[in-house]
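Researcher: Sequence recovery benchmark, item below. Answer with residues only.
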């Protein structure tokens, strides 16, 4: 038991996506946790427990000033009584944002650099004599895994409960060799959450899947083992089909070749289409997606489920997908502003 009262209850809320009820999809609504910090609450709580246990009162953090990581960790740890020293970076020193304000407001000291490399160098130097815990970028640390493990424990129970109520009649005519009861899907940012889940659910009937956003699959896989060591996990590999990449819709090979040439133009266009899609999704479901993570993967996920249900041969083996919405959406409330007519 911790003596601070700041940590709120972090309930696990699983729901259907409104308007999509017949689909085999459930959403784990970590986006409903306070301030849109999402699953970062669970990771930061694990770090906090580690700090308490080891009687550490100061933390040196570094990362992107507009990101969800630095905003949530500075805020949560500061409010838990920890002294926060922050090294941040941003490409645009004049940009103001929700996350940036949280970071500045919850750091006892802060310095901000124009690029990531410089900030990293400063962190490396400062951590040599730092009288506290120096957290690597994205908070990769055993403590993070401790927080996630208790989340997975609770989540496993919740998923089982929700399967017990909905699977009874399906079980009857299901083939006997069905070992996977459910799929747990999430995005891979640093990959800490995915690797923690991969480790925890390894011997269970829940299959964990991670979706690459931004980074290339091969690049990330080359860092996997090192990440696992830093998180205190077994160095187990994900099997084929557990790490997914987003395949763009209706894109012929010729078109993607063209994209390479006119990259900036089509990138801008994509973003506009994506923004509109998030806006429409919010209007239809009351769920706000975050443009870098959930907003990138939800559209392909819905398409995939739709195709699975159209194909009669796959009906038997389709396991329900539990998608983890990790939050981060408050930074992007402008996506759902009503456009005022001028
Ligand atoms: C941090 C974050 C992630 C990625 O988590 P990792 O453990 O770094 O892979 C995904 N979505 C949101 C909203 C996040 O804030």
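Model:
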């Amino acid at each position: 038991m911790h003596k601070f009262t700041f940590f709120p209850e972090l309930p696990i809320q699983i729901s259907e996506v409104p308007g999509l009820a017949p689909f085999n999809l459930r959403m784990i609504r970590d986006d409903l946790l306070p301030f849109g910090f999402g699953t970062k609450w669970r990771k930061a709580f694990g770090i906090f427990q580690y700090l308490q246990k080891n009687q550490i009162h100061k933390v040196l953090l570094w990362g992107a000033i507009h990101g969800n990581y630095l905003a949530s960790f500075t805020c949560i740890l500061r409010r838990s009584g920890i002294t926060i020293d922050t090294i941040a970076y941003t490409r645009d020193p004049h940009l103001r944002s929700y996350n940036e304000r949280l970071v500045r407001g919850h750091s006892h000291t802060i310095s901000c650099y124009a690029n990531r490399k410089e900030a990293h160098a400063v962190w490396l130097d400062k951590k040599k004599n730092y009288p506290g815990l120096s957290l690597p970028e994205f908070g990769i640390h055993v403590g993070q895994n401790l927080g996630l493990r208790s989340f997975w424990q609770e989540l496993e129970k919740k998923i089982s409960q929700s399967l017990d109520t909905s699977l009874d009649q399906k079980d009857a005519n299901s083939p006997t060799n069905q070992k996977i009861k459910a799929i747990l899907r999430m995005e891979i940012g640093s990959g800490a959450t995915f690797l923690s889940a991969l480790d925890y659910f390894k011997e269970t009937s829940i299959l964990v899947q991670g979706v690459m956003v931004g980074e290339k699959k091969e690049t990330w896989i080359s860092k996997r083992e090192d990440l696992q060591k830093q998180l205190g996990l077994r160095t187990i590999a994900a099997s084929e089909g557990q790490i997914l990449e987003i395949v763009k819709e209706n894109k012929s090979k010729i078109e993607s070749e063209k994209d390479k040439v006119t990259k900036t133009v089509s990138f801008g266009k994509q973003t506009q289409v994506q923004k509109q899609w998030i806006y429409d999704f919010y209007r239809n479901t009351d769920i706000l997606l975050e443009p870098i993570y959930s907003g990138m993967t939800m559209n392909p996920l819905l398409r995939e489920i739709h195709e699975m249900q159209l194909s009669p041969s796959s009906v038997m083996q389709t396991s329900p997908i539990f998608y983890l919405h990790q939050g981060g959406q408050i930074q992007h409330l402008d996506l759902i502003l009503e456009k005022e007519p001028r």
